[in-house]
Specification:
GO terms for molecular function: protein-lysine N-methyltransferase activity. The protein is of the alpha/beta class. The chain has a domain at 64-210: Rossmann fold, CATH 3.40.50.150. The chain contains seven helices and seven strands, in the order H-H-H-E-H-E-H-E-E-H-E-E-E-H. The protein has a seven-stranded mixed sheet with strand order 3-2-1-4-5-7-6. A hairpin with a 6-residue loop joins strand 6 and strand 7. Bound molecules: S-adenosylmethionine. S-adenosylmethionine binds at residues 51, 57, 59-62, 83, 85-87, 90-91, 105-108, 111, 135-137, 150-151.
C-alpha cells in the first residue's frame, strides 16, 4: 500500500491542469474581442440612429454565389437598377458589368466611401455605378425598373408595400435570402443561405388584386 491516498493526491496535484486562466491571456483575449467589436460597430452602425429600430438592418456582405444568382435572375433585363443597402458595392459592380445603370443606396458613410473608392480604383464610370449615402426608405424609387435587396426578414413586408406603391409595372425585384412574404415568385435560384428570389411587379399586383378580401363580421 505504498500508493496511499496522500501519494495519489500529491501526484494528481502535480499533473492536474490549473483551472485559473493566465491573466495575460485573458487580457489579450478581452482586448482582441473589444477591438473586433469596435471594428464591427464602425462598419455596421453609422447612420443607424435615425432609422426606426424595427427597420434596422446591419451590414452583412453577400457571397459570390448570391451575387451570381442575382445576375442570373436579371438575365434579359436592361435599364436602371437600385440596390437597396449597397454595402461595399459588390452587387452594384456585378450588375453594372452586366450592363445596368446602377445606383447603390447606403446609409453607412464608411461603406459608401469604400464603394466609391473601389469604383474610382477600378475605373467604373459614374454613368454605370453611383453610390449615394441615403436612407432608401426616404427615397422615391419610381424611376427604377430593377431593384435588388439583401436585407432582413423583418423588413420585407414593409418594403413590399413601398415597392408596390412606387415601382413601374414592368419592374423586376430581386430579394436575396429573405423572400417577400405574400408575393408570388417568378423564379428562384440557389439554395440555403444563397437562395435568391425574383418577382415581376405586374404579376405581384394582379395576384394581390385577385385575392378575395375577408370582410370582418
Ligand atoms: C445585409 S447588408 C447587404 C449589403 C450588400 N447589398 C451586399 O449584398 O453585400 C444590408 C445593407 O443595408 C444597409 N442599410 C440598412 N438600412 C438602410 C437604409 N434605410 N438605407 C440605406 N441603406 C441601408 C446596411 O448599412 C447594410 O450595408
Amino acid at each position: 500500500m505504498e500508493d496511499s491516498i496522500d501519494v495519489i493526491l500529491q501526484d494528481y496535484g502535480r499533473v492536474r491542469p490549473t483551472s485559473r486562466a493566465h491573466p495575460v491571456l485573458t487580457a489579450c483575449t478581452a482586448a482582441l474581442l473589444t477591438g473586433l467589436y469596435g471594428v464591427w460597430r464602425l462598419f455596421a452602425v453609422p447612420g443607424f440612429r435615425k432609422i426606426p429600430w424595427n427597420l434596422k438592418v446591419p451590414y452583412l456582405p453577400s457571397s459570390k454565389v448570391q451575387t451570381l444568382n442575382i445576375i442570373q435572375l436579371l438575365e434579359g433585363r436592361t435599364g436602371r437598377l437600385a440596390d437597396l443597402g449597397s454595402g461595399d458595392g459588390r452587387v452594384v459592380f456585378a450588375a453594372s458589368s452586366a450592363g445596368f445603370q446602377c445606383t447603390g443606396f447606403e446609409i453607412n458613410s464608411i461603406l459608401v466611401a469604400c464603394a466609391k473608392s473601389k469604383a474610382l480604383w477600378t475605373g467604373v464610370p459614374s454613368s454605370q455605378a453611383t453610390f449615394v449615402k441615403k436612407d432608401f426608405w426616404k427615397t422615391d424609387l419610381s424611376t427604377y425598373n430593377n431593384v435588388t435587396a439583401f436585407l432582413a426578414p423583418g423588413v420585407m413586408e414593409v418594403l413590399g408595400e413601398k415597392l408596390l406603391k412606387e415601382l413601374p409595372d414592368d419592374a423586376r425585384v430581386i430579394a436575396c435570402r429573405f423572400p417577400f412574404p405574400d408575393w408570388p415568385q417568378k423564379s428562384s435560384f440557389g439554395s440555403g443561405l444563397d437562395q435568391t428570389f425574383s418577382y415581376d411587379i405586374s404579376t405581384v399586383r394582379s395576384h394581390l388584386r385577385n385575392i378575395p378580401k375577408t370582410v370582418p363580421h
